[in-house]
Amino acid sequence: MSIRLFPFFLIFGMFACGPKYEFEQKYELPTQEWAYSDTLDFQFEIEDTLRIYGLYLQIDHSIDYSFQNLYTRIFTKFPTGERINEVVSMELADKAGVWYGKCRGEACSLRIPIQEGAYFDIPGTHVITLEQFMRSDSLPGIHAISFLLEDTGKRRNI
Q1: For residue 9, what pLDDT is reported?
Q2: Residues 10-60: tens digit of each pLDDT
Q3: What gap in Å lies between CA 78 and CA 129, rounded to an integer?
Q4: What pLDDT, on a 0 to 100 scale, did the predictor assign at position 18?
Q5: What is the distance between the alpha carbons of residues 72 and 59, in angstroms, rounded to a whole number?
Q6: Which of 93, 95, 103, 115 has the fewest CB atoms within 10 Å, i.e. is most exposed?
Q7: Would you state the pLDDT for residue 6?
Q8: CA 12/CA 101 separation, integer angstroms
């Protein structure tokens, strides 16, 4: 290999190594608003209970979104049928109204960790259900919601 090509391959290799997602699913909201009735289900399989994961939500929204945050109710259903839920406030902007994440033109996108260092005790089908939990029936300016399950490459010791 030529010495002149080495920097190109080095730079290409650095950008090719991003997060490795075991699962990712995106819901586009066709009306670009998220209503109470829009329940989003993300169903994925876990085979290896020793792997450690990062769980993320990616929120794509308009720069005209009216709130600094987004309250959600997150339900987790395990293969045993057990279901737990938690209310989570996701901060989309700082107190001055400056958006977090990447903004281009009229749209912003922000990846928010909902649980890092997560593991699953039981193999099988797991379901994450997401509902908006704001004081307004519909939230104009929410374009899409994605759930990302990242394989961290780490394993837990038991």
Answers
A1: 42
A2: 444 444 566 789 999 999 999 999 999 999 999 999 999 999 999 999 999
A3: 11
A4: 65
A5: 12
A6: 95
A7: 43
A8: 24
Q: Where are the domains of the chain?
A: 21-155
Quick: pLDDT tens for 70-124.
Answer: 999 999 999 999 999 999 999 999 999 999 999 999 999 999 999 999 999 999 9
**SS3 of residue 4 by DSSP:** coil
CA pair distance 15, 20, nearest whole angstrom: 13
For the segment 52-63, what is each residue's pLDDT rounded down to a tens digit?
A: 999 999 999 999
Q: What angle do CA 34, 39, 45 make, to 5 degrees?
A: 130
The Cα 132–Cα 88 span in angstroms is: 10
Q: How far apart are CA 84 and CA 56, in angstroms?
A: 17
List the CATH code of the domain at 21-155.
2.60.120
Identify the H or E element spanning 75.
Answer: strand 69-77
Q: Reduced to 3 states, what is the DSSP secondary structure of residue 26?
A: strand
Beta bridge partners of 90: 70
Structure tokens, 110:
């922000």
Report which secondary-structure segment, H or E, holds 15.
Answer: helix 6-16
- The owner of tokens 């704001």 is 134
